Structure formats: structure tokens, C-alpha cells
Amino acid sequence: MCSSLGSIGELLLQSVERYPNKVAVKSKRKQLTYTELLQEIANIQAVLKGLVRPGDVVALQLPNSIEYIAAYFATSLLGATIFPVYWKVARDEVLTICNYVGAVVLLTNKVIIQKYKGTDLFCLDVTSISRKSFTSLHVEPGSLSQPAILLQTSGTTSKPKVVALSHENLISNVIAHCHSLGLTPDDRVLIALPFPFGYCNTSQLLSHIYLGGTISILPEPFLPNQLIKQIKEDHITVFTAVPTMLLMLEKAIRKSYMLENLRMICFGGGMLPQFTLKKLIERFSRVQFVQTYGQTEAGPRISSAFLTSNFSVSDVGLPIPGVEIQICSEDGKPVPIEEIGQITVKSPSVMIGYYKNAEETARVLKNGWLQTGDIGYLDKDGHLHVTGRLKNVIKTRGIQIHPEEIEQFIAERFPVSRVLVKGSSSSLHGEVPVAYLEPQPEAVIDANAVIAVCRQYLSPYKVPHEIKLVKNLETTFTGKIRRYI
């Protein structure tokens, strides 16, 4: 699966050799060919070589930018392990996590670096490194099994874990992802998700570098009209989003769009109401929508579903090449087709483990199978359906309730931007469901009407005991609702 590639750095070197004069990456300010990008990498390496040794952990905190990509590959080609941190993460959080992973340096820019003055964290502004010509590139021989990157999970708990992925994990996932979607060197991808997000790191950044495609970077903040404008200007063929982005796009775009080059919109990472998706499919009628499923611990891509007119929102499609899926009962035994259980995954992309956390690693990796913590089933056609998450289950008088089912029900019937259902302690029932609704702008929602509709169509124990209307539901940096605080 990994071909002859020994490291993720070689994904880039392969494309430099094949497409030296092709545009590799475009930002608002500039664009670089593959050869020019390699020179940027060499310039950063010239400064890092005396500071970084093979096996060191190098933290990277930059906005989505050409400099991020250059620093990323400069680190990898030196044989070090990359630890990307979202640029908006607070200083004290960065100091804590960098200390935990043992980062020897933080690569950043002249603005962010000011936050760390007076701290013990050694920082380097890679955006101010002098631009030289003919600086030699250093390539440290790679090892497929060594950690290539450390990623904080994009989960919604208050204690994110650090996932260690090897070069083999990443390369096998990249190749399988590209094959499953039919991506080609002619594709031009527009990246709007944060680079440190596992979905973006593998399925967008590394995949299109591997192919020799062209990457365009959408400036923050995410604005739907700016998205459409850049898709047109850069002749974008592929765009990947999280549900929050598509919700914003559906609200902003009130007419059909004929985008000549755009052929595919991929999305994943959370629930998207069926009616929202149907509207988007109508408005972008020539675009193939693909629902993807994954987990940082799995590399991240696990499966993909090419949506048709009769799609199901729970259907996340067939596993990508090299991925095995089993649905297991509480005692770990495989269950029959159509029966719900925990989704477990086995593939060359499954992580080495949680960094410096052997106990948690042993809990989720059993005989090579990743216990995803997600609940779902396989249908007769081999499609995976995701119905919820184990730790979200609400137990009412011994009955298990999947809050995602209630969330989906409400989201499809009321004008909400987001909805969250959580368990609340009850002396009589143990737990009862409570729904938190974030209304769409200018929408008026009657809490009693929501409960009335739920009573009409849902089983009695699934009806929320209370509806709370909130101004904003807190989200993670990847757009998921934060369930635990």
C-alpha cells in the first residue's frame, strides 16, 4: 500500500520530481511551484539543522499558510516528529501540551511569538527567515514505523489525547483516500479547515501533495461568499468541509450555482440535517457530494459514501481500500448484519498509539482492532451506518438512548443552527434527555411545540424533559459541538 515511499517528506519530493514547474500552493499573497516550495523548505532547514535532531518533536503553530506547509515538510525531512497546534489555542494550553510532548522548539510567526516572551518555550519565527537561492536540502532517511506526526484529537471532551501516527499510517491512508475518491494530479483543492485537524492533514494537505495537485488556501474566517468567489477564481475541483461550514453555505446561498470546475464536495466530522444537504445538492446540481467517516486514531479516513438522491444521513459508505470493519457487542464479539454495536476498525492506517499514554492505548487497541467508541451497523450491501457514540448514551431506567437520534429528529423539523441533547440526572429515572437548541438567526422557536412534536413521533422515553434555547452552543476548532465542559 505504501509503495516505495519511506516517509511523508518523500510524498513531496516525488511530486517535485514529476511536476517541478507546476503550482503547488496558492495563498492570497503569493503562489509557489513545487520547485519554489522546496527552496522555501530548504531555507527553513538551514536554520533548523543545528537545533533539531532526528526523533525530536517540533511544534508548529501557524495559521493556514504557505509558511506552515514549508515548516511542516522542513521538519519531516529532518527526521523529526511534527506536532501541529491550532494557531488560536491559548498560550498556557500550548505551553502545557508542548511540555507534555517534549517539543524542542515551536515554529511560529512574528505575531504569535510575542505571546511566549518570558516563558521557557524556545520559539522560532519561520516567516522572517531570509529567502536564499540554491540552499541545499537535507533529507534524513525515513523509517515507516517511526512517529511522523502527533495530533490532538478533535473530539469533544475536555481532555484531548495526543495521537501518534507513523509515516506508514499516513502514507497508506493517503493512497487509499485518493483511490477511493478518484482524485488525480489535475485536481485543485481549496482548503478551509485548519491544517492541524487530522482530516485536513491527511485527506487534503498530504493527499494533494502526493498527487502533485494544486492547493489553494481559503483565508480565515470562513465566509460562504468568499468561498464561492475563490472556487471560481482558482478553478477549484474539490472542496472539503465540516457540517458547520455547509450549514453556513446553505444559509448564504439562495440560488442554484453552476460552478464550471467544481466536481466534488466532501464533508464529515458531525451531523448535517438531511434537509440542509438536500438543498445544497439542489443548488449545486453538478457537484458530487461525498460523506466521509473517520477518526484521528484511524489515520483518519475509514469510509466514504457517494450520495445519491435517496441517501441516508447515517450511511457513511464503504470502507476505503485496506480498511476492515467489524461491529461488535459489549463483550467484543462480532454481531450479525444490520445489528447495532461498537464500530471497530483494522487497517495499516490505525495509529501507533496515544503518545505517552500506554494505558489508554491498551484500552482502545485490542489485537490490532481500534475500538472507535462509535455506534453503528453494517447493512446488507456492506455500507457502514453511524448512529451515535458510546460515551454519549443516556441511560433511562435501564434503556439506552442515543442522543444523536433525537438531535437529528429536531434538526430536521425546526429552524436550528445546532442542537445538543445531553443526559441530566434524575432521582426517578437515573438520567433523562435535555435538549439545547441554538435557533437560526431571526428564527423563533416555541419550546413547547418542540416537545409536542417529539411526543407525537418519538418513543416516550426519548422525549426531552426540557428544551433550553441558547444563543450559542460552544464548538471545537473543527466545528463539532463541545459536549463536555
Automatic annotation (TrEMBL):
Name of one Pfam family that matches: AMP-binding_C
Sequence ranges assigned to domain AMP-dependent synthetase/ligase in this UniProt record: 14-355
Keywords: Ligase
SUPFAM superfamilies (alphabetical): Acetyl-CoA synthetase-like (SSF56801)
Biological process (GO), any one: fatty acid metabolic process
Domain AMP-binding enzyme C-terminal stretches: 405-480
UniProt xrefs under Gene3D superfamilies: 3.30.300.30, N-terminal domain of ligase-like (3.40.50.12780)
Ligase is among the record's keywords: yes
Recorded GO MF terms: medium-chain fatty acid-CoA ligase activity
InterPro entries to which the protein is assigned, alphabetical: AMP-bd_C (IPR025110), AMP-bd_C_sf (IPR045851), AMP-binding_CS (IPR020845), AMP-dep_synth/lig_dom (IPR000873), ANL_N_sf (IPR042099)
Keyword Ribosomal protein appears in the UniProt entry: no
Name of the protein this chain belongs to: Acyl--CoA ligase
